[in-house]
Design goal:
Elements lengths: L29 H10 L16 E4 L14 E4 L1 H9 L3 E4 L5 E4 L5 E4 L10
Antiparallel strand pairs: 1-2, 3-4, 4-5
The structure holds zinc ion (2 copies).
One zinc ion (ZN) binds next to helix 2.
Amino acid sequence: MACQAAIFPIVLDNNGIPLYHGRQRRLASRSQRRALKTMYQTCAIPGCTVNSRYCEPHHILYWRNQGNTDLDNLLPLCTRHHHNVHEGGWKLALTTNRTLTITYPDGTTQTTGPPGRRKAAA
Ligand SMILES: [Zn+2]
Ligand SMILES: [Zn+2]
């Protein structure tokens, strides 16, 4: 897994919740995890029913490729789909409204709309 490491909380949102860490930290914070769970009931992959509480925050743009630990760059993935992304060649793209496009290794793509979001991250 490519999503692990050290801890330097920094930027606060207007509720005082740190959601944008940029390059300050690599691991999603507790608040970011909570915000993801609020936005997503399940793993972000369409049709997957794994509860988001068992998912891991994934960096859409990989940390090693200068991806930021910002909520906009994080997506909850279950272990299986996390594995598919990191080792199975699935490519993910997320727009600012959280429309997710998945490109599978055979070149086919699937797009899913934003998750039904409760009021969480601004
Ligand atoms: Zn990951
Ligand atoms: Zn999944």
